[in-house]
Amino acid sequence: MLIKIICGQMEVIPGRPDLNYQKISTLIRQAKIKQADILLLPEMCLPGYLIGDLWEQQTFLDDCSYYANQIAAQSQDICIIFGSVATEVGKINEDGRIRKYNAAYICQNGTMLPGYLGRNFIIKNALPNYREFDDARYFHSLQKLCAEENTALANVLQPVAITLKGQQLNLGIMLCEDGWTDNYQYNIPSILANKGAALLCNLSCSPYSLGKNKKRYRLFASQSQQAGIPLIYCNNIGIQNNGKNIFTYDGSSCVYAATGKPAAALPMFAEDMLEFTWDTETGAINTADLPIAPQQETAIIYHTLRYGTQQFLKQCGIKKMTIGLSGGIDSAVTATMYTDILGPENVLLLNLPSSYNSEATKNIAYHLAQKLRTNYAIMPITESCRHTEQQLTATPITNFSDNTIYNLQLSNLQRENIQARDRGARLIAAAAAAFGGAFSCNSNKSEIAIGYATFYGDICGALAMIGDLWKHQVYALGRYLNEEVFKDEIIPNEIFTIRPSAELSAEQTVGVGGDPLVYNYHDYLFKAFLERWHKITPADILRWYKNNSLASELGCTDQIIKEAFPDALTFIADLERWWKLFSGFAVAKRIQAPPILSLSKRSFGYDHREAQLTPYFSREYYQLKEELLN
Amino acid sequence: MLIKIICGQMEVIPGRPDLNYQKISTLIRQAKIKQADILLLPEMCLPGYLIGDLWEQQTFLDDCSYYANQIAAQSQDICIIFGSVATEVGKINEDGRIRKYNAAYICQNGTMLPGYLGRNFIIKNALPNYREFDDARYFHSLQKLCAEENTALANVLQPVAITLKGQQLNLGIMLCEDGWTDNYQYNIPSILANKGAALLCNLSCSPYSLGKNKKRYRLFASQSQQAGIPLIYCNNIGIQNNGKNIFTYDGSSCVYAATGKPAAALPMFAEDMLEFTWDTETGAINTADLPIAPQQETAIIYHTLRYGTQQFLKQCGIKKMTIGLSGGIDSAVTATMYTDILGPENVLLLNLPSSYNSEATKNIAYHLAQKLRTNYAIMPITESCRHTEQQLTATPITNFSDNTIYNLQLSNLQRENIQARDRGARLIAAAAAAFGGAFSCNSNKSEIAIGYATFYGDICGALAMIGDLWKHQVYALGRYLNEEVFKDEIIPNEIFTIRPSAELSAEQTVGVGGDPLVYNYHDYLFKAFLERWHKITPADILRWYKNNSLASELGCTDQIIKEAFPDALTFIADLERWWKLFSGFAVAKRIQAPPILSLSKRSFGYDHREAQLTPYFSREYYQLKEELLN
After folding, report:
1. Beta-strand (E) ranges in A446-598?
2. Pick from A383, A539, B308, B545: most CB atoms within 10 A?
3. Are strands B231-235 and B254-256 parallel, antiparallel or unpaired?
């Protein structure tokens, strides 16, 4: 028997069951026109997934139930499988709130089919609680329900039987993490296959991270191969966020043949339907589509940032963007991306020079704006900063304890921060409002890691678009924009060769001095602190340094370490300086930082949760330090 | 037999096992001098609890294990019971990271006694995942371990047997949430009592919220009474944070007699030892201490804010505070609190008038500073704002698409925000640095709820000390400071009677116009949106409005609602205006807001997790609206 299946890679709008229901209804109509037997939709496609504590609103949950029933009512001539929240009257979660399951509904003949334990839905068991996920905060797992009902999970887990064209078909339905079996007690796809599933379906709402698709293909290919049956992976597109991080959802829905070979896949970030037929006798998958070709990393970064930013601006209703343009690589890449996304007429670039800005960077800014054909203005900050310094140092301060009067003094660092805030909070924020829109945070991940930014100066704005890119990735994206997107030297070549500098003092001016970071080393050091599954601390770094394995462990060159640090003393001083900032004051800055568009395996924000603490060096660290210095 | 027990209500410093170990060693020495038989210490007293993803660092976990063994080594002449993290080599959590348990160690004769399932510790089962808690992110529960090892939890849970003076004693050891049994499947104290525990011990690391002690006393009293055995509740003091929220830990350790009567309790926020004897034959508790008297709410608010702020400043190394002093109640209360905490010599109050500030508020600011005897200065913003407006509107903007030139225009709202940022980012931030310290965020909870604040203007600073107080609570605290703390009219009486206003335009000047909020109604409306266990939305509000139960449901007066809203049309317009802000743009502001000192049952920040979404009105809302308007 030939079964026609459509996998609906839809855009899900988090927190809007009303809008998602409209989209789903359209998909159902289209699938019926195409005479599909089964329409498969993603996990949580009615409520969205990353919606924070909106899960605590009864009226919101009621609407999700209402629309779920409306979907079931449309399943007269088609089997509809979709994910949503399921609630249960009279039961509570362990926090005393309404009982909620991350559930999949299988609907046919206008009704919901029986699922697990007498419910009309099946229940997700593997609830992720790492990175951006908080599933245990909201959902009751199948395992907990089984314990309550005194039954074994292995007895409950089973394929759902549907009848199509008079024949019974056993579908092994899973929800997202249920298929990521590595570290969980139960291997759900294998249990379902052993219990006679003829087809595995994974309904996902899975955020994109660099490299994730490779892992997905490997994982699901191996599942279908081991089970010897086809597998469909259905994922949504769109963006969802948890406040501090914006996540993109790439879709990349895919059907795997019983051999494990991907038979067809949908492109990233596109709303589309994956259509194919499944021969229930042979298990063969027949499709016209082909897997998409793998892309080079910087191309994926470009497309993900572009899509994520575009969607974020749309959701927030931001149509125009103002960007402070220093002449450095970060603001140049940000400005070029926004021009690409919004069009030059909707971008205002502001160059805000003080007396410390070099002709080189001022010229770069001017030429970039001209090349991009955006709106552009030069607003010097010299007069305003002079006025601020004057006001701060000349205003008499009265000490009302003894009625003495004195003045404040400003250090050089304080004068630098005055400039940064004069740019960001005084001019850019106001100009952005007057231009009609928001302004951009141009901070990159290397700066955010150690708080090399000024509070209310440059770590502010609506979105840190490149906040999850290390400095070397920002350079690569800049080159990609010139070579592949604009196919022109939009970003002046000079920018790739000058030593980056904040230009906040005479010593920092480009051509004189630059940033205190050796990016070809520090990017990789900070990446080890943040991105490794087992987090790296200074003790690990010193151990590797002592063993001469540091460069290979970090992924940088030996040469850069040797050049930057002539001896252990300078190496250790540098390590302590940045570790103290990374785990100290930079945390305070990140707490008040704009949302970051997440892209990597671990981004700053809610993805990497942090408390403001005093920096900690472990016992092993002190031992290694003593050995190395003696 | 008489057993002498000491419950050590210690300050725990999160993320610093080295310092906590020193403190514990001191307590052990003192307990030995006092010839205690048992020393009971809090949950997670080595690592701290709210330390974010520090739990992912192997070197940190190694140090915790090392110090735990060092504590056990000191148990030669005493039984030491303490909480810490336990790791297990060769096992992983469901996220693939190192296996971690929230554990209690029971140590005697220099070693750790057997706990559960062959381990030398007992394991917490009830892992909270609500409000600020993320236990499932880090810890493996006893229930999951039992499932792995194919055994029933009820078989594993049992009292720990220790031998004292030749006699075996069964201690029922629980970790914090294990005792908060309301909504969990297993009632752990009751299981332990049924299995022969002669004494229940609850080791906690439990943050303080208003009203929590009442609930604690009720809960633990009922447990000891039902079991008919004494119960010791041992909690730490100090502060811990998760970035967006600072939580205080009040201690309030307490011993309950077998009748359920609290026999003795330690005061809030004080490091102390609770000493008593336990007669193992009769179960009697003998102690010299008495329970502390319950305090009035504003007194508790004052003490909690004072303690939490003091500890936060100490942890961050902040010794001086600068506060923008508008002459309104929020900054007046904040300034008075900081003067109380740091002393007047360490406080700089800045009055930053524009032409819109009334003589009334300027005088209040001056008199308050004089009364407090702090440092004080007046720094007008008129000239700087004029310069900014001039620069923004007169600087030519070039459109590089067509090479036309034009100017930006400023709206009234934009001119208001320029003033707010001129104060916060240009002057206060710089003056605070020059004065040598940080500056304060004076926002209250009512403003934070709907984002009635300017980005990088007034919703900035090191800490939102009163960010978890509704406006009416700020007034109450102001009166308390005058009447009970300073016993003088420090905050001028006038401030309590004038209508609050932002004074950013001629229309808003005090005496002319004021805030758009009717605090006696909106405080209670926003509280319902945020603080109820089952969150309230506009549909609930309209239902109550229609049923005439709104005032009693919210806790405000009928009169205020009737006065503010003559009809359903104005009522609904107001509701929609604030709901859209509450669930819309205010979320964006909170994402970048300073840390809030948490005090209530639900504070903005990590305690109430939010995504930036488009505001949602439910189906029921639209139905009710239509009914009310027709």
Report:
1. 596-597
2. B308
3. antiparallel
Q: Does the ipTM exceed 0.95?
A: yes
Retrieve residue A568's tokens.
């252990």
Can you name the CATH fold of A295-506? Rossmann fold (3.40.50)
- Which residues in chain A are contacts of B344 at CB distance < 8 A? 400-401
Give how far B477 is from chain A: nearest CA, Å. 24
pLDDT value for B507: 86
Cβ-based contacts of B396 with chain A (< 8 Å) = 377
Contact B417, A430 (CB under 8 A): yes
Tokens 């102390």 found at: B272
CATH of A2-293, one of 3.40.1280.10, 2.60.120.10, 2.60.120.200, 3.60.110.10: 3.60.110.10
Query: What pLDDT is recorded for position B182?
Result: 82
A105-115 pLDDT, tens digit per residue, is 999 999 999 99
For residue A510, the model assigns a pLDDT of 82
Is residue A528 predicted with pLDDT exceeding 90?
Answer: yes
The amino acid sitting at A82 is F
- Please, which pLDDT band fits residue A320 given cuts at 50, 70 and 90? very high
Pick the CATH number of B2-290 from 3.60.110.10, 3.40.1190.10, 3.40.50.150, 1.20.1540.10: 3.60.110.10
How far does the CA of residue B399 sit from the closest CA of chain A (Å)? 4
Please check whether residue B374 touches A, CB under 8 A.
yes
| Shortest distance, CA A185 to any CA of chain B (angstroms) | 7
Task: Give contacts of A 452-471 with B, CB under 8 A.
Answer: 455-457, 460, 462
Cα–Cα distance measured from residue B627 to residue B630, given in angstroms and rounded to the nearest whole number: 5
Answer yes or no: do A417 and B408 touch at CB < 8 A: no
**A183:B315 CB<8 A:** no
Structure tokens given for A29: 């109509």
The pLDDT > 90 percentage for chain B reads 94
β-bridge mates for residue B239, sequence order: B248
| pLDDT tens for each residue of A559-611 | 999 999 999 999 999 999 999 999 999 999 999 999 999 999 999 999 999 99
Whether residue A237 contacts residue A250, with contact meaning beta carbons closer than 8 Å, is answered with: yes
**Chain A residues 240-259 with CB within 8 Å of chain B:** 240-244
Domain boundaries, chain A: 2-293, 295-506, 518-630
Residues of A in contact with B146 (CB under 8 A): none
